[in-house]
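worker-03 picked up job from queue 'complexes'. Input manifest follows; two sequence lines, order preserved.
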Amino acid sequence: MKIHTLTIVGVGLIGGSIGLAARRRGLAEQVLGVGRQWDSLETARQLGLVDDHSLDLTSAVCGADLVIFCTPVNRIVQQVLDAAPHCRPGTLITDAGSTKALIVRELEGCLPADVHFVGSHPLAGSEKRGHEAAEANLFQDRLTVVTPTVHTDPTALGQTCDFWQALGCRVRTLSPEEHDRALALTSHLPHLVAAAMAGILPAELYELTATGFRDTTRIAAGDPALWTAIFQQNREAVLQALQLLDSRLEEFQRALAADDTMALDSLLTQAKQVRDDLGN
Amino acid sequence: MKIHTLTIVGVGLIGGSIGLAARRRGLAEQVLGVGRQWDSLETARQLGLVDDHSLDLTSAVCGADLVIFCTPVNRIVQQVLDAAPHCRPGTLITDAGSTKALIVRELEGCLPADVHFVGSHPLAGSEKRGHEAAEANLFQDRLTVVTPTVHTDPTALGQTCDFWQALGCRVRTLSPEEHDRALALTSHLPHLVAAAMAGILPAELYELTATGFRDTTRIAAGDPALWTAIFQQNREAVLQALQLLDSRLEEFQRALAADDTMALDSLLTQAKQVRDDLGN
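worker-03 finished. Artifact:
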């Protein structure tokens, strides 16, 4: 895969890491960063994350072969709609958003006929944010979910998969809805629960936390605005995941209230089995 | 602080790390390990965790200045009651159990007049177990909670605090009940929630987990029998902590169901503040 110009919209942790990885791997002749703050883009350039940058989305996409949106999930649709009419025929547009169904649904059928959007979500992230946290190896051996629909252009789909593989990812395709239901359980629910657990800790107990509390709540340090948007875009699946967790917590509650050793041990043993199977 | 013979009952992760730290720091002339399996004790000796070992609790405590019980919380009381009559006058007995109220209550007034028990809990651990995981620095800069009551001998209390400080810990005293209420929230609840979240993950979604899920559920790999005993010994406080979490999860549920951006953002912002304040 050889790209002449790769345009990255949103040069934060994800966008910056894509730029760095693409440049290190010689994946594109030019990597162009688009953002809202000149200073921040200039720092990204100095850090080697992009070759050049622009504050103007429409002019920055007009020479691109591939445009990737690494902006908050609630901004992607409008930005793609703004950018697409300025893209050359054959331009591939993808994204790195943590939710997919709403984004894919709202873009389908709304782009120029020869500009293709394919949804993506690299399962790589951190509670850190900003291009200062960018890493060239952020995607190495991580999974990227690519979310085609029946209307997705097969060539564009293939190019999207090639792009992520060229960055070091494994790729798996799921429908946007399958993606969102899965991620509700594997990512959005853990974030919600970490936030709930951190949120109820009174200050006088901070000193009495150890590795367990710190590990379980680490992601609660994530950006509230980004996560509010993720939860809102995946409301129904997150509510279902929360219900599933509630039922399991109720089983624990009943076992505890009844001082039922067998039930507690069986719940903990099954959980350990899953966690051991998951690996590190 | 200088100990002639330190007897460690239960040479696993905690007991083994205490032995290693005590030997490295020259804290005791002899470190004696007590366990149930000769092979395992012999390996611990070869790893340098203890100087010598014994399968017989009563003979192993009769020459000790300090005996520390690093066994599962549901075995500590009976073992202390078995050992104490064989201790010399002036022997200090402590433990490293994750729960304190039941243990301290059941031992108070039941030991020979000149043998003193003081409850301890070093907030250092891991989802790993066994002496293979022992580390000399496990306690370095960690907090140990020491749990005196009004009946605790002041000299024994001072020696217990000295002992943990000599291993590298900071020490804080709390009543056994304060300890258990605090740890229900900072340790037992996170374990329960991690187990619930791991437990509801279907095998087909393993591949779709990333750092967030893995961090939040890591402790669910802990030993089910150890944790069943911890939950049972601290049932009421854990049930209260679970109720507190339930209320917070309900707030998230309501905010999601109502698509209330402000409420979601405010819950996540408050949680981030706590997590940022906690540090790494």
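worker-03 released lock.
Chain A has a mean pLDDT of 96.
Residues 176-199 of chain A form the longest helix (24 residues).
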